Amino acid sequence: MTNVKHTRIPLFLFLLLGSPGIQAQSGVRELERLQQKYPDEEYIQLDVRKTVRISVEDDTLSVTRETYEEGLCIGDRALGYSNRSAHSSRFSELTKLEAYSVVPKGKSYSKRKVKDFTTSDFVNSGIFHDDSKETSFRFSGLTEGAKTAFTTEHRIHDPHLMPLLVLSMYAPLEEATFTIIHNKDVEIGTQLFNCDTLDLEYSKKEKGRDVIHTWKFRNVAKLDLDRRAQAALYYAPQLTLQVKKYKTENGEVRVLENLDDLHAWYCNFLGSMDNDETYIAHLADSIAGDLTDTLEIVSNIYQWVQKNIKYVAFEEGYKGYIPEDAEAVCSNRYGDCKGMSNLLNSMLQSHGIRSNLAWVGTRDLPYRYNELPTPNVDNHMIAVLEHQNEVYFMDPTHSNLPFGMPSPFIQEKEVLMNRNCEGYKVLEAPLAEAHVNLLKDSSYLTLEDRDLVGIGTAELHGYVRMTFFDYRAEQGYDFLKKYCRSYLQKGNNKFVLDTVWLENEQDPNLPLLIRYRYHIRDYLASSQDEKYLNLNLEMTDPLQKVDKERKLPLELRYRTRKEYTYVLDLGNNLSVNYLPENQKHDGDKFNFSQHYAASEGNIERSAHYETDYILLKTEDFTPWNEYVEAVNRSFKHRIVLDTNTP
Amino acid sequence: MRFIPFLALSFFISVLQAQPLPILEDEYTWSDTEDYHAMVPDKVTGDAHILLDDRTLEYNYAADGNLYSYYFIHKVVYLNSEQGVEEQNKIYVSLENALELLDYNARVISADGQVTLLGKDALQSGVTEDERTFNYFAIAGAEVGSIVEYYYLLKRQPNFSGSYMVLQGSYPIQKSQFRIVSPTNLVFEAFAVNGYNEVEKDTTYEDRLVLKAHMENVPKAPNDPSANNLGSTMKVIYQLDDNLFTGNTNIYNYGTLSQSIFEILRGKASKKTKKKIAKFLKSADFDFAGDQRDKIFQIENFLKENIRVVEGPEELLTNLEFILENKVANEYGMNTLFFHALRHYEIPFEVVLTSNRFNLRFEEDIESYAFLSDYLFYFPEIDDYTMAGATAYRLGVIPFGYIHNHGLFIKELDIAGIVTGVGKVKFIEAYDDAHSHHDMWLDVTFNDDLSNINVDLKEERTGYNATPFQPFFDYVPEERLGEFRESIVKMIHEDIEVEEVTTENSGDENLMKHPFIVNSTFSSDQFIELAGNKVLFKVGELIGPQLEMYQEEKRTLPVETNYNHRYYREINFLIPDGYACKNLSDINLDVRPFEEQDKAAGFVSSFEQEGNEVKVMVEEYYKRIDFSLQEFEDYRSVINAAADFNKIVLVLEEI
Predict the structure, then answer these.
(1) Which CATH architecture has domain B437-654?
(2) Domain extents for chain B?
(3) In this complex, how many residue pairs, one in chain A and one in chain B, have their CB atoms less than 8 Å apart?
(4) Vertex B486, ends B485 and B490: CA angle to 5°?
(5) Residues of chain B below pLDDT 70
(6) Of A145, A455, B73, B650, which residue has the fewest beta carbons closer than 10 angstroms?
(7) Residues 172 to 191 of A: which have CB under 8 A from any B CB?
(8) Residue A195, domain extent
(9) A265 membership: H or E segment, kind and range
(10) What are B256-305's pLDDT values in tens digits?
């Protein structure tokens, strides 16, 4: 086993050797230099080193990962950087963790070793119980001039699960090095992401039986993730690593050379499933009943799983890859994405329907299957139906997802669809069009004194319908009223929802209809005989401008379209004096229109707003802000009504 | 009638069966004949309904001879909806303060009577990100119409001096019971508050003492706006009263505590420590030329600026020498240091022990250490308070959970060299409305085409209106200060262009000494709307968004506000040349329902006009914390008057 030690002694250790005078001076100089370089920062990453060693031992691979991280507090509010942690799991086992801080004390420094390490079962919000552990600790004494250092070592237990080497951008980084050391008998593949504009130097050398690859980074800027930016992995400089194959005495062992290999490895896990076929067929039959149409049967079985099984994730060891047996999921009434997809898939297959399991990476992962054929690519499992040349994506973990629509968080992502482990196909989950996620809200209005009284119907389609139910936390009418009062609010906060009820609640494939009655008190402004009415009632749901400080693209969950129609019955006592001008703003990515018309005793206003993007790029920020301003300006126009003199 | 099959469950681990069982073993099991489904009321509206909530806290000796408390809870929950099933998927068992989880079990009874025992494997464990351990039952197989039943038994370090149990939760409870069991020599006392049935002695047991409180149809915990919901929940407060073996009676009483507290606090500083404290205080270089209030303020400010208060029960954080050396303490340590600093400068004070009324109200006629969770310092010569452990607060303003509540005021007595104290329960009055006022002066000018307004704003905040802003200037990172200042002005409206903003008297050293002042100029087109050729000036929105108070469900609690406060807003503007405004009288609003009575709350807006100059004046005040249920609608009308003012639109028309 190779055993290359660090050859470079960290700079600040010099401060602990030698005379106090030199210590103080060189330490102070470095501190000053960095304070000048980064006047607004509190903390700097001085040196980050990540090394992976791969060797062949007794016909198997031995893989270890070492990290070393050194930082410096250049401000006096660096306490926020005290808490750290190291992750450990069955596949990536933490074998060493050491940490210390070096704290200025008068003219010299004192070294403080970290002694308290707390290891806890890492509770991931989406995961019920897994074997991940988090070991946390605190650096003490982080005042201006203090340094931090910690070292970790992990043993990687499965060569399919090679670590991702990432540079964290939480603080400016002076220097970083990625090193891969592998035996000549091991063939690896590496890829860099997000490194194009960086000061990066690559070198390769051979030493004995080893090949050493080194990537040296300098001056990597800090990155604060804006709100609703894409996940950090889209921006963080990283090196992906895959072991393609290696030679042993007994021949060549293939690990992950291409997508075929990844698929084959995943299929091993599917092979470990042991579904009770009879039970499943029986269950599927009882749900399908007398139905004969394939899509109807699928829809019914899909809905049954969505409604009756709760999503809860277990991920212990390889269970993180092996779907739980279908009947276990059923009797437990809960399962994770793999278990639930397995249950759905096996029920459909038992009925002779062409359904398949599929792996997919959510939008938090920036990779594509052919580009990176390793398990880093995906983190979710769904089922996919092939029927009459169409493909239907089904995610049973989401109770309110309409049939055929993929979960919003996998739109545009590649899906690796299994074909009974004899083959696979890479599909792309579609990006739902704006008009599919439609909110159509119409009201019939009358005026009673100063109050505006309305009877309305809101129609919710696609993801908009789904989201309405996602946030409906309680079943009762009290909650529905409170929820709808906020969801349907018109005009201003004097909106009172008098009554509300739902239609088509049970069938997620039909649009949801919300019927409601409301009034807005004191809504009319008046002066002598004139009344001024602002009929832009949907203005309580304003669009947000992009902050001028923002640097990163903004990601939405899905595209939407909203349509509003109001018919105001003026009765006998009022007539129209003035109607605002119609408005329009065309565009591919976002557009709106507003239209007024008056006819006998009625005023009709219709409006639409379409947000036709899922990612707003930086070059679109200004046009978007101008669009929002145009919409906001349009809300400032009122109708003028005259009281008819008898 | 369906019968649930008999399930014999002996719940205790065999090891302990060798000893005489210290607890009510036969009581800690679940029923075999009870038909829970028959108990479910016809009309269940919530997502779940608790059929049984049975708790026992038993004090007893373990095999090792030590005294422990054993907390047993047994619950039967009916699941009425998908959300209910979702919620009961995981049933949390908090291990905080627990030494050991001794026993547990869970089962699911389906709508048709099928029982699925979940067994010991159902219990999972985890630790949260902030390092708190918890266990939970993973409830499998539950559906709408199912009943989930579980129990667990925890062994704990016993608390004798005063504690309480909240007996109302998110769902109504059909049958509720709470018992305190103790060996015959340890006599406990317990009191029910807020409407729970009184605690009685249960004399069925000869070998132990049992106090029992029980009630049927306990409503779910209240959730009314502007009410003290948690403080009003039904509770039982309990503590040890007598120990018949030692002959001590009325063990945890206020008198004993009052007598010893000063001695204890004094004892925390040895002669050596006192010298260090003196040295530390000397480095502050105080200037005590001012009055006593100023003296106290300087001392407090110095301590709070130099010592960091963190959470943690560690002994070290209460040790004065450690605190002085490392400049870090916990709340108790800070209280101790402050105590000694006050003594050093011979400033008269009283220690006040009390509770946060929004968790537990200090009950005047119940003597219990459960109420004595927090420290305040009271200064009789200036009749004012401070909380040493609250670093963002200063003399003259304590966190509002502690005002309008009783407290135990303890005065030190020195009787012939013997240090003692005397305590008295008194009421901590809320500050008056002037204490927390927020005044705004706005000078508004229209631009030439009347599409935009330019505003010169001055704001002055004091008391609780200042606490969310004034202290934080010392904590917000430098680079964020500009954003922070702007955000205060943007509370009027998100969409305004702040041209300039400066603040005066920021920083916690100014809290209660000087009002927090904001000066700003901003412009916006958000306050203007157009109607044909008329310009609508939304003058009402310039005071910022106002809450509209809804009350749809029947209200059960009276109003209890956080603190008394008042507002004054003045808006000056010029009616543009060539324009007239005919509906200025819309500005006049007068909602003063308590005027004849005690002027407890009111809203008045009016205007003055001289030529084209208009001055709008708005006054809003709340001088009382409590408003009864009968007074609720009147109280609400004042709150909503502000929302009504928000909607006032002045119509400007060309002449």
Answers:
(1) Sandwich (2.60)
(2) 45-243, 254-428, 437-654
(3) 123
(4) 125
(5) 1-27, 29, 32-34, 126-134, 552
(6) A455
(7) none
(8) 19-254
(9) helix A259-271
(10) 999 889 989 998 999 999 999 999 999 999 999 999 999 999 999 999 99
